[in-house]
Amino acid sequence: MKKLIALIGLALVAGAGPAAAQNLVITNARILDGTGTVIERGAVVVRDGKIASVSAGNPASVPDARVIDARGMTVMPGFIDAHRHPIQGNAAEWLEKEAADQMRGYLEAGFTTVLSAITPDEGLELRRRTESGAIKGPRIFAARIIPLARAGGGGRGNAGRRGAAPAAAPSTQGAQGAAPTAPPAPAAGRGDPARFDTSRPPLRPTQPAGAIAAEDTINAVDAAAKAGFDYIKTVITVTPGGPETETLRLIVNEGKKRNIPTVTHAVTVVDALAAVDAGTAVLVHTPHIGRLDEDAAAVQKIAKAGIPMTSTLAIFIPHFSPDNTPLFRDRLPFPWDTVSSAGQGPVNARLLWEAGLSYGYGTDTSWPPKESLRDELRALSLVFSPKDIVTILTRNAARSALKQDQLGTLEPGKLADIVIINGDPLSNIYDVLNVVMTVKGGVVLSDKTTPAAATRR
Length: 457
Hints:
Elements: H1 2-6, E1 24-32, E2 38-47, E3 50-56, E4 66-69, E5 74-77, E6 79-84, H2 91-97, H3 99-108, E7 111-116, H4 121-132, E8 139-145, H5 214-227, E9 231-235, H6 244-257, E10 262-265, H7 269-278, E11 282-284, H8 296-304, E12 309-310, E13 319-320, E14 326-327, H9 340-354, E15 359-360, H10 369-380, H11 386-393, H12 395-400, E16 418-421, E17 435-440, E18 443-447
Parallel strand pairs: 1-4, 1-5, 6-7, 7-8, 8-9, 9-10, 10-11, 12-15
Antiparallel strand pairs: 1-2, 2-3, 5-16, 13-14, 16-17, 17-18
Helix pairs in contact: 5-6, 6-7, 8-9
């Protein structure tokens, strides 16, 4: 109650316009800096959009600073969703009609960075608009998908597997680097292709998939780099004697030449091991098919490779509607034949964590960001403590986005992405749902507080 009343007393000082990075001083804050350090009563100083200092007590006078008195509330790094599909349906219509409102939803939920895991060309325009301030939204990083094999192998190839983009997600990119084309629609009444995953027996391919010419793959990587994408996204389901691992290795190596890292969707233990062998930079999704509790060697191989992983555990737990209907991420009834993944995913995640793997937050859902966060918290809480989850949502998510040098912790020199939370996430992790202010790069972009009298230091 005291902290709710304190919202009225947040002292804000008039500063630069909303699109300009400011000098900020956040005082009287309970600081969780993302490294595991807790400062019970401290301050964060921001200069020119970056963290200048984090310290106990209140700092000396900071000229021309906008002062925010946190009144004992929690200050954390901005949240990062390292695997999301923000653009839904018709990308051009979404950008013009829905983007502004939906980007605001990310900020209000505390998200300052989003990795768009499969991005149509409109996603690059979304990135430009959020960077320029034309749309107030989180920092967008964009990935273009490149296939590892042609469809075949007794299954659906590299499209339409469980844990891939929802049916309404953006299009995929062809090997030639040409304009994206729409992915295959799911069978009538079946909804999300994650409902019939070809990575999982009995649908797993039993014959080798067709190879894609190396020249075509290299051209696709080159096209993604020249277009300005931040990552290459790949999806791996290894077929017997198939080309997937070698094609992934080629993509990884060609991407390195062009400074564009590769992230790989791998939802089985077998496929995660293949992605590790190919040298991918990030493992997308917790492997939820296959028991790591029965394969200690696989745990060690995956964890010791030093490749970060995103969580996305909530895909396989039901999302409950207001009338208590359990739903899948396609908003259709939850497919209970997939529920084993809701248990195996967290078990595998904890085993990898114990072995030293960097495990970061990602959702791969189309629910609003706050709802997706609530669902992912339910799944993570099965095997992780509140302290663990704070790290997963901040520092480790930055590692999963390969941006740990810029984001994820409140440390001098890093971008000033900050949230103020009404509550204590270390006592109740669901308090991260109570974001009252979001700062991105030193700019206050979401403020649910009531400004009090302004003062200037």
